[in-house]
Amino acid sequence: MTTTRPVDDHADQVRVAAAVAGPRIRLDVLQRVAGLTSDEFAAAVDVLIRGGAIVVAADTGESWFADESVRRDTEARLVLSRRADLHRRTAEALEADAGADPAEIARHWAGAVAATPDALDRAALHLRLATASVRAGDLATAHAATRSAVAVARSAKTAELLAEAAVTLEPIGQSEWDGDIDQWCTEALAAVHNSPSTRVRLLARQSQAAVYLARSSEALQASSEALAQAEALQDPSLLVEALTARQLATSGPDDVAELAAAADRMIELGTSTGRAEVELRGRLWRVDTLWYAGDLAAIGGETGRIASCAGRAGGPQGQWHVLTTRASLAAARAEFDDAEALLDEALTVFRGIGHPAAHGADVAFRLVLGHHRGHSPDLLGSAVWQFGTDARWDLAARLNRAFVLVDAGRTDEAAALYQRCGRPESWPDWRAGELLLNTIGARVAAAIGATDDVRRFRDRLETRRGWYVVGGAGATNFLGPVELVLGVCAAALDEPDAAVADLRTAEARCRSIGAPGFAVESACVLAETHQRFGDESRARAVARDALELAQALGMTPWAERLRSLAVTPDPLSPREREVARLVANGLSNREIAARLVISERTAQNHVQHILDKLGFANRAQVAAWASTGLSTD
Question: Under 8 Å CB-to-CB from 112, ≥6 apart: which residues?
């Protein structure tokens, strides 16, 4: 025989649950927290409404205490164990609600931590708090909470807790954060009783940390082992973690085929399990492969699917990926105003969560925009290029700033910065950034006359023909086709035929994929190459063809370069041009001498010089040339 608790007891359950839940909570969530059946809950709520304790909004289903001070007093009077349990139950109920505020979930996990006296129980709650804080964008709290759990695991010598803590956070490109993850994984992997699934998760996370810590060989080995073991276990969740690690370790141009296959698998895993965040990762990886191929149309088609996944996954990270993908695509299409607006929106999201990569993303993106529109003064200075002590970021900062200075014509300063980068063969391995690093290095070396380095970069890039220059692993810093930089290299090495062939190919490919800004750039470099090697006529023709597009796109620096190339140089001195106009007016040498108050012999010499310079045989040709104001090629 069962007994039913009185309605008043049920009402008290709902009342204290609502007090801990906070100022407002939906009734369906509150029911899960209270743990009552639908009938029991409805009766209890009715008692509380009739008693004036709570108010319910009929349109939204939200409930709140009629007197907020009563709610706070009710929560304060609860014993710690009851308060901790209700915070935990509320957090779990909200996590099951797709529309719940991540910050509210994190608040309840923090409340559960604060009300839990037992160290091991509190450590487990700290890890729940860390996960929720990442979703809420509070990275400082996430890091501190995980560190607290690790400290307890070490003190209690609890290998299971240490392993769980080690995989709670994902690397983010911040040395202290990523270094902690690597250390925790190393300690946890040393345990002799790790289960196969735990080992997969630890290896995957350690591989990700190794990538950010510039230890590529370790990342490749750990990710390979994690994926092989995950395949053997055939656990979808483990496959997701192993594939994620492998993607980060293999995001260079040599990895495109493997990355495309991983993207397909990740998308399938996301759709089959209903995990939108998993599908989102797969679609972002697919976009990475499309950047290498320069398939801007396909990237445009993927943006809607990425936005759908991000909307279902929730949280600021997905929103960031949507905005940066759209911004990068707009920049590649020379839609500069749109790109800048999307970037500003994305950075607002990233800075809101305190992500350490926000500054680097801002500078890298503005470098790409400034390359075509003109660089802002702060990008030419040194302060904006401070990224920390990581060897790769330090190299990238010096090299990218040198690239900006080259764009601005400040080649002496660029040369000094380039020398501080050391020899290219000593640069740290950066698999995902290979094309970007070699391309920018080549452009700077060509501009400052470092021909030995130009040869090295050309040799590295020669095998990448047909690809487009991007930073892999989501860093879509698009810099056009590889043939563009190969053309620059060939021109710097005094190989005009090779330069012209590559630059023509680059221009055609850019026009084909819908990247007009890089078509303008390719044409400008082609015109400069023609001019440098003595083909003034072709230089002018190419420049004139590209000038109108450069002006329409707002590519001011490139339009200025094209304009100077498109103008026919005046072969005559100012005095000779004056004489030519008088010849066109039918004046004889004697009349010209009288008009200009010079001797007839001097007037005759001027006319002869004009004929020689213009390659004409008689005065009639000079008259025709002067009357139109045009020179012949």
Answer: 84, 85, 87, 88, 91, 125, 128, 129
